[in-house]
Design brief:
The protein is α/β, with parallel strands linked by helices. It has two domains: 134 residues, Magnesium chelatase subunit I, C-Terminal domain (Helicase, Ruva Protein, domain 3); 201 residues, Rossmann fold (3-Layer(aba) Sandwich), CATH 3.40.50.300. It contains 14 helices and 13 strands. The strands form five sheets. A five-stranded parallel beta sheet has the order 4-7-10-3-11. A two-stranded antiparallel ribbon has the order 1-2. A hairpin with a 5-residue loop joins strand 1 and strand 2. Helix 9 packs across helix 11 and helix 12 packs antiparallel against helix 14. The longest helix has 17 residues. The relative contact order is 0.15.
Length: 349
């Protein structure tokens, strides 16, 4: 039975080989809580950000972080790698960086018999968690090399294709203030980020805690909370989480409302040139499933769609000239859509 109000469904149980049963939603939530608790030993506040990053990871996607320097982006990814017992690497993007600098290259080596041959030397991209710092400082040629890794989980050198380690997760950052000497990400690459997350500046209390932690000489000790195999299992649970047709319909109508030539709100029709792609819908659905599981529910409700709509769509909406000129934010566009699109409504075809 389903509830029209929130898509409520009976929570299934899974059986172990010893005849015991467990609720996958509860196990999912407990594992996520351990991860967030360990990360919180290093990262002060930013609970929403940590939750969104974790959602990206469990969804098998990649995240784009936008924030001013010094807010702990590197510390967040490095701590997450320690907590997940995964390999970590950081790439500092610069305008002179070439694709081979991140994916690796073939080098000539000489064996014991004096014969020479090519051997592939892996680049920093061959890690479970990769921090692509200031990605918009790299040229489009280097950005495109990262694109294959993000989309396919592989890199191509000469005629050989190499698989990246799993789980594989790219967290890219960009500075919203300093735009000199940068190469804005093309829409096609932006669309391949599962979420775009904004890092808020810490409040006074959080700043005091950060100061105390970083100037006292004491290092926070974090412990392994899970591993890559468990993350892969969580990804499977998320994919199998049921979603009612009317909740999917709600997400579809939200996406269509971002397009000025589909079912737009007045604000969209006035300020938007192009709306979100089908990947935006996929991000909303998958993100909503994970949000429900983190809340201990093995079903998806309307509120789960609303919870992930802004990070899933803010980077997939292209403003027109009027929107740019008046300083309209894509966050306000999505917020307006969530206010205008009703939950109980038929999809127009």
């Amino acid at each position: 039975m389903t509830s029209r109000q929130g898509g409520e469904q009976a929570q299934p149980t899974m059986h172990t080989e010893h005849g015991q049963t467990f609720d996958p939603a509860v196990g999912f939530r407990e594992t996520a809580a351990r991860i967030e608790e360990e990360v919180g030993k290093v990262i002060v506040g930013q609970r929403k950000l940590v939750r969104e990053v974790l959602t990206c990871l469990v969804a098998g996607g990649n995240g784009l972080l936008e924030g001013v320097p010094g807010l702990g982006k590197t510390a967040l990814v490095r701590t997450l790698a320690l907590v997940l017992d995964c390999s970590f690497d950081r790439i500092q993007f610069t305008p002179d960086m070439m694709p081979a600098d991140i994916i690796g290259t073939n080098i000539i080596i000489e064996n014991e018999d004096g014969k020479r041959g090519f051997q592939f030397q892996k680049g920093p991209l061959f890690a479970n968690l990769v921090l692509a710092d200031e990605i918009n400082r790299a040229t489009p040629k280097t950005q495109s090399a990262l694109l294959e890794a993000m989309q396919e989980g592989t890199v191509s050198i000469a005629r050989n294709v190499y698989q990246l380690p799993q789980p594989f997760f790219v967290l890219a950052t960009q500075n919203p203030l300093e735009m000199e000497g940068t190469y804005p990400l093309p829409e096609a690459q932006l669309d391949r980020f599962f979420f775009k997350m904004l890092i808020p500046f810490p409040n006074a209390t959080e700043l005091a805690i950060i100061s105390e932690r970083t100037t006292s000489g004491q290092q926070a000790v974090v412990h392994k909370a899970t591993d890559g195999a468990t993350i892969a299992g969580m990804q499977n649970v998320a994919r199998q989480t049921p979603i009612a047709a009317h909740v999917t319909n709600y997400a579809v109508r939200i996406l269509l409302a971002t397009h000025p030539d589909q079912q737009p709100t007045p604000m969209v029709k006035k300020y938007v040139r192009y709306g979100g792609s089908p990947r935006g819908l996929q991000a909303m659905i998958t993100g909503a499933k994970i949000t429900a599981l983190l809340d201990g529910r093995y079903n998806v409700a309307y509120k789960d769609i609303r919870a992930v709509a802004i990070p899933a769509l803010r980077h997939r909406i292209i403003l027109n000239f009027d929107g740019e000129a008046e300083g309209i934010s894509t966050d306000s566009i999505v917020g307006n859509i969530l206010e205008e699109v009703r939950e109980e409504e038929k999809l127009l075809v």
